[in-house]
Structures are given as structure tokens and as C-alpha cells.
């Protein structure tokens, strides 16, 4: 099968086209013919050596996958996180923080290939009339956004600041929050994306500035943006965050944090329940996946470069 593999960490130049044997299916697994794979910041972090991997190279990146199960021909999405199904967290429906957990494209071969082997418990069936392209665009980023909103317990009609608003997480969060009749403040560092955010539904768009006294913040950036977000939270305010896209460390004034009774919540991915709920939101039109561009498999390095240079608005997909 054709694939794009990472031969070693370092840079995008270490991504190479390869012809590999189809995956060997083990007991309890299924073979999936991939149709689309989403491009994610996780890929860049792995390439840069900033995320632990299985240690086995060449590694096929790609965590957001849709396609067809070879045996049945059914359309499927792949839940991106590996889970055991037996630990205390899996039994609570918290597969995203499984004690034995991992991620496709990081600890197991991913989706920048024609085929992928998948534990059957990770297969999410898709209605035959549903576009696998649209579902691929939400299989990781939108689940992450929805999980964050639920963890932060953001109520209807709340005012919410979104950092990193133009990516897959941010564009989905805007749509879900507007469905909840929230006032959405979207931040971006790119002037050319201001109009796109307003068109998507953001009530206010801030260019490289921050508001004050915010009750709810969704942060998909980390670093100095995370630090500033803690500073501007209102009393009893909640910051929920999912990423370390910016590599500088987040800093917090502990005294101010406890005196203002701040709620600071990490949020990792999402659950099986979350992905099913997100797919339903796509089907009902609450979420209209924002697809920036689609590249062929051999153009994976170019697609990742577009993401790296922050040129994308929404999701970049690879069509296999």
C-alpha cells in the first residue's frame, strides 16, 4: 500500500513516500480502507520530537481517519485514541484518559496511508448517506471542542473567549456555542481571518488583543496566551485548555488564582460518547465542518507546512 512515513523526528523533510505491506489484522481488529485523514498540530509536535511515540520508525502519522471497513463495506470513523476498555477510566466512559491509552499516528500507525488496522472497539459506524469528508473534519478537533465545553459546564447565553479560534477546535467551538446562544469572542493573530470568523458566527473578533474580566475561556494555544488568559479571568471564572501549541511555559499567580476562585481545567481529547454526539451535531447541522483545503496523499508535507505556517482556516484534509 502507498503511505507517507516519518523516518525520524526533526523536520518535515523526514516525511517520505513509501510502499508498504497492508497491515496484518490481529484478533479483535478490523482493516479499514482509508478515504480521508485530517491534518493535526499533533503531527507537527511529533515531527519536532515534542510528543512521545511508540519508538518504532518509520511511523505513519495521522489521527483523524474515515473510510470503509474492508470486510463489511460500511462507512466508519475511527475514534482517535487507543484504549483498553478495562481500566477504571474506561469503565467510567472516559476512554480518552485510559491508563493504557495512546493515539493513532503517535503510538500506533496512523492514517496517512491507504489502509489501517483498527481495534473494533474504535470503529464508529457512519450512515451510508453521510459524507466521510465532513466526518473526518470533526473526528478529533471537534470532539476536543465539545469535550471542553462540557468540562467547563458552559451554560446557554454565556460570554466565551476562544483562543486559537481559526483552527479545527476553534471553528467548531464557535458553532456549538452559537447554538447555545452564547456571545462568542474570538481571538486571532491574522488580520485576513477576521472576516472569516465573523462570517462563522463570532460576535466579536479581537486581533492580538485580550478582553478583561471574562467568565469562560476556551484555550487551544497554551504558553503565553494561556498565561494571559488566567490573568483576565473574572472571579469564579473558568479556563479550559487542550493544547500546548505555543511552547513557552504557562505561568500562574497562585495568590490571584485562589483569591478569585478560578477554575483551571485541562481537557484531553474526548470520549466515545463525545464522538457520537459530534457526528449527530454534523447530521443535524449544528456543526458545519470548516474545511480549509484538501491535499492528495503525496502532498502530506505541503499540507503540514500550510498548518505550520498558520495559513489554514479550519481543517486541512488528506484524500487517500
UniProtKB/TrEMBL annotation:
Pfam families per the UniProt record, alphabetical: ADH_N (PF08240), ADH_zinc_N (PF00107)
GO cellular component: cytoplasm
Keyword RNA-binding: no
Record-linked InterPro entries: ADH-like_C (IPR013149), ADH-like_N (IPR013154), ER (IPR020843), GroES-like_sf (IPR011032), NAD(P)-bd_dom_sf (IPR036291)
Every Enoyl reductase (ER) domain range: 10-318
EC numbers: 1.1.1.1
MF term (GO), any: metal ion binding
Needed cofactors: Zn(2+)
Alphabetical UniProt keywords: Metal-binding, Oxidoreductase, Zinc
PANTHER family in UniProt: ALCOHOL DEHYDROGENASE 1-RELATED, VACUOLAR PROTEIN SORTING-ASSOCIATED PROTEIN 11
Family indicated by similarity: Belongs to the zinc-containing alcohol dehydrogenase family.
Protein name, entry field: alcohol dehydrogenase
Organism whose genome encodes this protein: Candidatus Gottesmanbacteria bacterium RIFCSPHIGHO2_02_FULL_39_14
